[in-house]
Amino acid sequence: MIRGLLLAIQFFTAVPVRKNLPIGRKEAIWMFTLNPVVGALIGAVSWSAAALAAGPGGTEPFLTAFVLVLMLAVLSGGLHLDGWADMGDAYFSYREKNKRLEILGDPRIGAFGTMALLFLLLGKLAVLSELIGREGLVPAFAVFVPFAARAGLSIYLSITAQAKRSGVLVFFIGKLEGFRIGIPAAAMLALGGAAAAAWSESLLFPAVGVAAVFVAVLIFRNWTVRNFGGATGDLAGAFVEGCELLLWTILLFCM
Question: Transmembrane ranges (predicted)?
């Protein structure tokens, strides 16, 4: 379990884990199972930084939101943002599936990817600044959102075929040897929702958020299969970013 957690930190965050870890079936299973926990840690650290910035005599809501968005991006190493941008370039190229997959693998960012990234970040800043300006950002929800998005990612990967025959994601999924990571991920999501409800003493957003993640998984799965032939590492990262924005927006209407 510890190795799986370290692998999740090593591959899904910018935190340096300078250790050669074995990557077998057990480690891969734990890596995906505990990735939501890594998301919760990212959320906790990001909220702490934003709360510190907004302390007595501190920043206004927009700058506080900027600190939160910045920390979420920095701690994840920009990995998911890169996937979102690549998805924007590939999808809006309006090419056939194989060409879209080639564009996904191109490290360069084009005009459509830049616009997609811009609107994503502006969307997060707008929603979070509104949330913070109303009643402040509840720490339970700041932890729950990145947790739930990553739990949804594991469910998505569990039910979606791989669009490519090679790549980092294909390597890790291959290590699972048919193990359905979506089952423990769904359990983690439900437990995370219950914990967020107990911590915040509010049931509405955790309940709606958990349901929204399941719906987002199904919609995103069908969309990626239709437009890309399945899942890729970039699309996985894009799911996390899109799901986080969706959950922040839902929270805005639940307050």
Answer: 29-50, 62-81, 109-128, 140-159, 203-223
